[in-house]
Design a protein that fits this description.
The structure is a single chain. The protein is mainly α. Helix content is 84%, strand content 0%. The protein has a single domain, classed as Ribosomal protein S20 (Methane Monooxygenase Hydroxylase, Chain G, domain 1, Up-down Bundle). Helix 1 runs antiparallel to helix 2 and helix 2 runs antiparallel to helix 3. It is elongated and about 70 Å long.
């Protein structure tokens, strides 16, 4: 337990900030799962800008590391491009 008022306040602040950070991380994971689900390619193309935006915001606020955001964006883009290529191959 904190011994001073400022330590108690710091604990309250850390709890609020931690909850906010966890919400952002959970949102990113949800969007990632949504991208990899069985929704049509057109919807995935619309969704990718939202995913990029959330990752960039999280990196900017140091919730996740900048290189982590970059790596995730790259992997999502690779996944989308492969899905488009498979769709094109099956329609030909």
């Amino acid at each position: 337990m904190p011994n001073t008022k400022q330590c108690a306040k710091r604990m309250r602040q850390d709890e609020k900030r931690g909850a906010r950070n966890n919400y952002v991380k959970k949102t990113i994971r949800t969007l990632d799962k949504k991208m990899r689900s069985d929704i049509p390619i057109e919807e995935k193309e619309k969704l990718i800008s939202e995913v990029y935006s959330q990752l960039d915001k999280a990196a900017k606020r140091n919730i996740i590391h900048a290189r982590t955001a970059s790596r995730r964006k790259s992997r999502i883009t690779d996944y989308l491009n492969k899905a488009k290529a498979e769709l094109a191959a099956t329609t030909e």
